User: Fold this.
Amino acid sequence: MPSIKRTKFKLSPEQLLEMFYWLKLIRAFDERLSILVKQGKVRSGVYTGIGQEAIIVGTGFGLRKDDYICPLHRDLGSFLMKGVEPGVMMSQMFAKTTGLSKGRDSALHSGVSDLGIFGNTSMLGANLPVAAGLALTYKMEHTDNVVVAYFGEGASNVGDFHEALNFAGVQRLPIIFVCENNQYAYSVPIEKSMAIDDVADRAESYGFDGVAINGNDVLAVYQSTQGALARARSGEGPTLIECKTYRWHGHSEHDKAFYRTNEELAMWKSRDPIPTFTTYLKGLHVLSDQQEQDIVERVAKVIDEAVEFAMSAPDPKPEDAVTDLYA
Amino acid sequence: MPSIKRTKFKLSPEQLLEMFYWLKLIRAFDERLSILVKQGKVRSGVYTGIGQEAIIVGTGFGLRKDDYICPLHRDLGSFLMKGVEPGVMMSQMFAKTTGLSKGRDSALHSGVSDLGIFGNTSMLGANLPVAAGLALTYKMEHTDNVVVAYFGEGASNVGDFHEALNFAGVQRLPIIFVCENNQYAYSVPIEKSMAIDDVADRAESYGFDGVAINGNDVLAVYQSTQGALARARSGEGPTLIECKTYRWHGHSEHDKAFYRTNEELAMWKSRDPIPTFTTYLKGLHVLSDQQEQDIVERVAKVIDEAVEFAMSAPDPKPEDAVTDLYA
Amino acid sequence: MSKDLSYLEAIREALAEEMRRDPKVFILGEDVGAYGGAFGVTQGLHEEFGDMRVVDTPISESAIVGISIGASLRGYRPVAEMQFADFISCAFDQIVNQAATLRYRYGGRASVPIVIRAPSGGNVSGGLYHSQNPEAWFVHRPGLKVVAPSTAYDAKGLLKAAIRDDNPVVYFEHKFLYRRAKGPVPEGDDIVPIGVAATRREGGDVTLLTYGAMVTPSLEAADRLAKEGVEVEVIDLRTLMPFDKAAIFASLEKTSRVLIVHEDVKTLGIGAELSAVIMEERFDRLDAPVMRLTYPDTHPPFSHILEQANLPNPDTITGALRRVASY
Amino acid sequence: MSKDLSYLEAIREALAEEMRRDPKVFILGEDVGAYGGAFGVTQGLHEEFGDMRVVDTPISESAIVGISIGASLRGYRPVAEMQFADFISCAFDQIVNQAATLRYRYGGRASVPIVIRAPSGGNVSGGLYHSQNPEAWFVHRPGLKVVAPSTAYDAKGLLKAAIRDDNPVVYFEHKFLYRRAKGPVPEGDDIVPIGVAATRREGGDVTLLTYGAMVTPSLEAADRLAKEGVEVEVIDLRTLMPFDKAAIFASLEKTSRVLIVHEDVKTLGIGAELSAVIMEERFDRLDAPVMRLTYPDTHPPFSHILEQANLPNPDTITGALRRVASY
Ligand SMILES: Cc1ncc(C[n+]2csc(CCOP(=O)(O)OP(=O)(O)O)c2C)c(N)n1
Ligand SMILES: Cc1ncc(C[n+]2csc(CCOP(=O)(O)OP(=O)(O)O)c2C)c(N)n1
Ligand SMILES: [Mg+2]
Ligand SMILES: [Mg+2]
Assistant:
């Protein structure tokens, strides 16, 4: 069976199946988290990226270990793809010592330098100058590594966004800015937070290209990312990729999201990135029903084990509230 | 003699002469300040706008008293045009009680609410959110007043610039953002601080128009401003006007500005906004040699009196260092 | 006439009443509109007052404060909301440099009557960026006032006072108290003046100075001490800048012993200043050193175990009181 | 081997030597490149180390710090320059939330070895935004270190220590001292360890705690007191966080009396913490209250008269010493 050449960058059947696995795993991870919140087992604010998985997988797929990612609150899946064990990630949400923060904070607020993962604060946009700093070191070293930095369309209104992208443009840094435009910043729809349609147009202020693409099409996201990666690796500077998408759940699991209509949600659910991709793979005979079933089971097992690992992991000791402040 | 219709907005001979007066006065004011610094009479940092007067005059001319301006460090002339007495402005530089700050600070760091002048801090870009707030009140009141806010091309890289222009775009505020692009931010040429040629293009990120014009042509600046004012007054929202210009002196009077070439300076001096305009007025027979001479003398007298006023004005009392902190 | 309200409802009632009373009062912030704010504080206000008095902003804390300052210069009384007090760091420059200095640099001829509402404090498993107590930074900056109510009554009365105050006021509302602190709140204009502490419990043996969410556990500890024959006078500071020196000294006159309890970290928390002032001005009245029981110098961790390890509570406060009493 | 250098030259020498020693050390900031910085501190470094190790940035303080953090996560040791310490407010969030918390939230598995150089302090007619002493804000934030040298020797040795320290260090260099403080500076690696105070003058009667530009006038006052038979021990704190409690207590052991002198404002200046700690831990050793002589709670005014009115000077320090000595 021939490899898929949807556009420029070819993917083998094995790669396509791997993408499929990641989409399923990340969806399942967030869905489980959502349940754990309802069960009162996770105390953390949980901000799922359900509905947005194609962005995480399409941009994260094929990144090298020595590339760097700067993910956001809905991108816990990026941590998994970059190599963090699901159990460790789950531990992070359970405030266990086996989590990245050892209980100090939850969600994305921790990173793994060896895996090229930056963990941001809560402050939206604040990861972008850091991302530029990481990319600056690649430029200094004349390597072909790349930084992939994520932000929401709402965060693109923050001052740090502007300062970071401007610097990246001036220095032609090897960096890709990925906008997850899910139409809302908490309750505020994009029309009320900016007077333009496409965040991608903001790239023009910084002297590099911006493209707006269908963020629910994992292959479209992958193709755009590969193009941007190739340019960045060869010294042609940054790209802004705006991925149009939608978050299915509320802003956090506590948000009922009455600021949007059921019709709107239903419309976007009909564009669910996973079944679309499933049908596509089946049409290509890359994925059989059996394989799908196997992957679903594998995913369930991974998640179960992750939860089990996290729940049985040790709690931090009270003394640790005041350690690890200074090197 | 017919009124001048350079383009859309007509100016009478009297108005043209008034413009000429302002150009001369503002130039003379800055030149005197420069001398006073060299003489050690003014201790303040002095940031002259010599070479940039066409922007101040072209944007400031014909503003209403109940419009608001948010000027910058090189725009002391804007204070004069908006109605601050030259002696008061000079007192501000001499740290006298007759200055706007009563000695607490110098330069533009004070304002006059009754005259619609905002006095910024030193923090570049920090005047722009304030300008947006002023404009928001005009929108709330459904008046046709306008805010004119100034910034350098260097300041357009600051986070506050982004947040302010975005808000102004979303709310379609009655505001004009005037970029004084004098090619340098202190020692840093524009090529090293942004990867684009025209700051005007940044307006696109905020959903309103940006134009780049010859900032050394007072009538071009005036025409653009009048167009933007008319749009703002009728509820059509903000405009960004980028005025290309050059500062003749160093960043401050203490800066030798060796980061630029003599040729570059000479080239820009040959585009001095004042003689260009003088020749133009004389060609139209709006300005006679005698009138020119009269204005030059009037200006000299105004400046002399301002310096005299300031120098003989009372110093603040030591006690006043701790007053006027709280209302 | 009074009715029982929660702390959160009391804040909302103050906002509604002040907005009805004074058309110049308006609200701005993220999600404050139809959504009613992340905590629901502004629920119903958008419905009553509309888009132009309950303004949803893009995510841009710096602009939110800058816009407030601009509007205040035209006679408005904006109440800006930080979604969490933690994000006030993003608006820091506008607060400490623009707002705090304006009256001073204007020679006393203008003022900045803005209120910045900031939900602060922990004990809600919020982690590093949703639990901070940033009050001391603002107490340290001349030109600002800082308040931190502990009861529903004060939440309402102090917010009214803050809105009517002609100076910039940072209003810290403790998120742990939102729904937990309930109590009688008078209908209508019961102002709690800024700068006046409240004695929550009288006693002649030890003075306990505290505020915010630490008042209740302090009172509990005081009750325990009473059983041991030690009468603790609990003073709720309510205003941190300017703090009520007279009330503190009057209590000290009786007790000669002081314990300070706060949730903010120890080093340069407000307790440091209180202790230093007592040292300077009442050294001879002291029978024991002024002691501090505070959060230790660390960040507020997410893990319940870690967070609880160090929050002052009735047990630890009781212990500290015993030490001060028996010194 | 040592030679006489100015404080400014000593800073430059530390930078040059550290950059030669460690290729991971680099400089970034506004005008730091060919221009050599607003004060000339980095002069010559761009020539020696080139564009990629002396990086001119756009005007964007927040990005400057964010970029530094990013680079530090890849093993670099960036030294960021704020053109004036006053502008550090624009980078506040990146410092207090991104840098200060990173190690903690990473569970101790990463650190942020950055230095932020900030020219602080007044007595140069700089006015409100070129004279600030923002050190206390950072002392209040766990996870940061704060240093403030007073001599050329320490300027060099502490900067070297800061660059080699694995934690974020805010390095306040007092601009009044740049060319006024001169003295012997050893060639090569003379590290002044962070956290260790220096006794500038021994004495058994009163301990004077100070730092930065207040050391010299304090020594002058101490000499005057000596003529009156009172021997003052002058301790230069050098490091404000962590401050040298051992040195303070050792001196107090001899003198039983303490005066704190600083240029920062009184309320919650570092003096408050020093006083509170002495109160808590050495109450019984005190023969007099710890007193503070500081800048009053106001802004640093531009007028020479107003500024001089309140800067602690040998006369006012002498007076304060007499009060403490004779209490
Ligand atoms: C500086 C800052 N301000 C406010 C918030 C509170 N907040 C958290 S997420 C969010 C909405 C973010 O919208 P967007 O950037 O579009 O990302 P999304 O949540 O939609 O993925 C807000 C306002 C924050 N985290 N940081
Ligand atoms: C936030 C901030 N950072 C740095 C400075 C120091 N500074 C003052 S003026 C200036 C250059 C400004 O350039 P530009 O905005 O182009 O205005 P110009 O001086 O050229 O008119 C700099 C860096 C400042 N005032 N504020
Ligand atoms: Mg969004
Ligand atoms: Mg410029």
User: Anything to note?
Assistant: Chain D has two domains: 2-186, 198-326. The CA atoms of residues 136 and 268 of chain D lie 7 Å apart.
